[in-house]
Amino acid sequence: MSSPAIGRVDRRKARTRAALIAAGQRILADRGTTEVAVQDITDEAGVGLGSFYNHFTTKSELFEAAVFDLLDAFAAGIDAARADVQDPAELVAIGIRSTCRLAATRPAVARVLVLTGPEFLVADRGLAPLASRDLRQGLASGRFTLARPALALAVVGGSVLAFLQMRLTADGSGSVTDADADLLAATLLTTLGLPAAEAAEIAHRPLPVLDPPPGPTPQGEPS
Amino acid sequence: MSSPAIGRVDRRKARTRAALIAAGQRILADRGTTEVAVQDITDEAGVGLGSFYNHFTTKSELFEAAVFDLLDAFAAGIDAARADVQDPAELVAIGIRSTCRLAATRPAVARVLVLTGPEFLVADRGLAPLASRDLRQGLASGRFTLARPALALAVVGGSVLAFLQMRLTADGSGSVTDADADLLAATLLTTLGLPAAEAAEIAHRPLPVLDPPPGPTPQGEPS
């Protein structure tokens, strides 16, 4: 057991780390770049410059932690919202539709995802493990017929990432919408092996409500 | 008409710009980051620090030019190699298979593509305009049935990007190969609306040989 004094130190360290990570998330979301000085991060976090190096070796390490903390929490939220769903096809559809909606419901989180790029698809944290599990389950149950899990993940994950990028940069004329997100889910279910009519029906079921995803809420954005 | 003296100045300016862009391409490919000092770029280019600002306002501007110069040239190479192909389905298949092979034939270019991330899918230069044209042609001719060009581009472009990322980070155990690139092309053609057997046949035709793509050739990599 640790003494109360140690406990206080640990709690303070944890608070400093959390403040740095939250600062990293806000910087990514607001400025869309990791090209900032360490001092900018500690200023944003309201902590001393030196304390940065008690927690992180490099800026990249901080930003990676900032991104994956956000994505872990978002993935946990999707998982909780789908607790009553058994069908792997519907699990995948909810994952696709919920993630595509991030661009509208929580653009800051969507921007972080797009900025991280395809790297998050090969990570062992965040959304990739959730997507991999869903896809393998669908394959094992015979629901999906695309026999290479890596390709299934590339198609599903890459398409969602590209969709988010399009939605964030749409100028209105060629913009993609929630309806397109559902159409994308239906399309990807047919790619995985479902008949088109069944895929469309599953991709248009009522979508479970997610808890508001965590993460930065820039000015003017509903929290 | 410009005088010979002006011509010499213009040629020198063009050489400096080209040297800076080539330096940016090598830095992206070798170091995998844009987080370098302007001085690093001018040192790599063998030009004076001050000349950077005669050509670019920011590092981002230089790196954007470096990426799109590379992708424009690669897209032109694909287009030239497919000059005798009429069928939009085969045009798309060649584009997918050639781009996926970049990870093996020219990893430096593939790394630049992945580092740029989904942003290149919404650009008006590089591979996106080529892919958009192919997809719209296939739709207009009735060859493809996925009726939203934006979704078709998200699925095709996003999948290829994710495939490249997987191939570049594969540790051997779950690695994706040229055969998977062809399977991906076949899968995506069925997503666009082709019957599975026809898609598979088209995605396994002999692939036209591309001129070696331009761009950085890191040490030890065949040029």
UniProtKB/TrEMBL annotation, chains A, B:
- Source domain of life is Bacteria
Sorted UniProt keywords: DNA-binding
Q: Among its keywords, does the record have DNA-binding?
A: yes
Q: Which Pfam families match?
A: TetR_C_40, TetR_N
Is the keyword Transit peptide assigned to this protein? no
- Gene Ontology MF: a single term: DNA-binding transcription factor activity
Q: Which residues bind DNA?
A: 37-56
Bias kind Pro residues: ranges: 209-223
Q: Which Gene3D superfamilies match?
A: Tetracycline Repressor, domain 2
Instruction: List, for all copies, the residue spans of the domain called HTH tetR-type.
Output: 14-74
* Region described as Disordered: 204-223
The UniProt entry, under SUPFAM superfamilies, shows:
Homeodomain-like
Q: What is this protein called?
A: Transcriptional regulator, TetR family
Q: Which organism is it from?
A: Nakamurella multipartita (strain ATCC 700099 / DSM 44233 / CIP 104796 / JCM 9543 / NBRC 105858 / Y-104) (Microsphaera multipartita)
